[in-house]
Amino acid sequence: METRHKHDGRCHCGNVRYRYYSSQPAAQLSMRACSCSYCRKTGARYSADPCGILVAEVGDCDAIHLYRFGTQTADFYVCSKCGIAPFVIWPDGADLYALVNVNTFDVPLEVSACRNVCYAHEDVAGRCARRRRQWIGNVTLTLPGHRRVDDFAVSSAVLREQPVALG
Asked: Would you say residue 89 lies in a domain?
């Protein structure tokens, strides 16, 4: 059985939390910094393990702003209370794929090797194919039951009405 390394993260105020299971320990995670204007301005550094697992939870949906940039295909989950986007989710039919912002890990990373990437040359089909290959493909997103699912760009097949224990 493959060893899974647990990486907990959250926005600054804790409204958006996640647990990311990866085949790599934190010091060996592959990290990249997108060169688009949004990612440069926010300073985010992303990681994804295609064999990894992401369990994410939103506490107050009214404090979430979904931001779509560029091709308008992926949602940055921005907490409007503190302004931090801990992860990005791309819905592909009934499936979800995700990236985590390693700057939001609870245990800070010593980052020396972060690869700069530019995806400006990709068309939408190429971008979607890359995400299927490289992003986290096992994603569970929990939203409070009082919020309508169609307010968020996710598949109802992967939502849970009761929070997942991340503690």
From this structure: yes
**What integer best gives the mean pLDDT of the chain?**
79
Residue type at position 78: V
CA–CA separation, 60 and 64 (whole Å): 7
Angstrom distances, CA of residue 14 to CA of 80, 91, 135, 160: 12, 24, 24, 19
C-alpha span between 113 and 55 (Å, rounded): 26
- Separation in Å, CA 60 to CA 11, 22, 43, 78, 153: 12, 27, 25, 12, 16
**pLDDT tens digits for range 115-161:** 666 666 778 888 889 899 999 999 988 887 644 334 444 433 344 33
60 in any annotated domain: yes
Domain of residue 28 covers 5-160
* 26-57: pLDDT as tens digits: 877 877 777 667 767 777 888 899 999 999 98
